[in-house]
Design brief:
Elements: E1 3-8, H1 15-21, E2 26-27, H2 34-41, E3 48-53, E4 59-72, E5 82-97, H3 98-103, H4 111-114, E6 120-123, H5 125-136
Parallel strand pairs: 1-3
Antiparallel strand pairs: 1-6, 2-5, 3-4, 4-5
The chain binds a DNA duplex (12 and 12 nucleotides) through loops.
InterPro entries: 5hmC_binding, EVE_domain, PUA-like_sf, THYN1-like_EVE
Domain EVE: 2-134
Protein name: EVE domain-containing protein
Length: 140
DNA sequence: GCCAACGTTGGC
DNA sequence: GCCAACGTTGGC
């Protein structure tokens, strides 16, 4: 299974909104970036992703999973744009902030740390494990 | 609210 | 096919 990271602006559509969608999930539409789209093309049913809040919070708050593989983006007629559907799995024990990720040496290669603008990012197995650890550990 | 970084567009 | 101009994103 592969791991990913989905960025959202919580003012527009946040973790609580995804949870409210229940098992049906949400079409992750509106992505207009080739790299992000290519990442979605590579996703398989059941792949897991971190749900990240940009601007407000700047933290990873929950775990989502791919519940529909790539299909045309229904928000546009442009056939270039495709997307997946995701649904909420569970919140993280505690959010992991961008600041925490930046100072964690094992996350120095993380896309979020180095190219925060990419809206759908790959996460390596080891990065995933570190985030899981941090989300369950009291930082103090 | 500013601005740096990045991606895309379009003129040549 | 290059590159300047522009628009957008997102951290600060």
């Amino acid at each position: 299974m592969a791991y990913w990271l989905f960025k959202s602006e919580p003012d527009v559509f946040g973790w609580d909104d995804l949870v409210a969608r229940g098992a049906k999930g949400e079409e992750w539409d509106g992505v207009r970036n080739y790299q992000a789209r290519n990442n979605m093309r590579a996703m398989k049913l059941g792949d897991r992703g971190l749900f990240y809040h940009s601007n407000v919070g700047k933290e990873m708050v929950g775990i989502a999973e791919v519940c529909a593989e790539v299909h045309p983006d229904s928000s546009t007629d442009d056939p270039r744009w495709e997307c997946v559907d995701i649904r909420a799995v569970r919140p993280l024990g505690r959010p992991v902030t961008l600041d925490q990720a930046k100072v964690e040496p094992r996350l120095s290669e993380m896309v979020l740390v180095n190219n925060s603008r990419l809206s759908v990012q790959p996460v390596s197995d080891s990065e995933w494990a570190v985030i899981m650890e941090m989300s369950e550990t009291d930082p103090d």
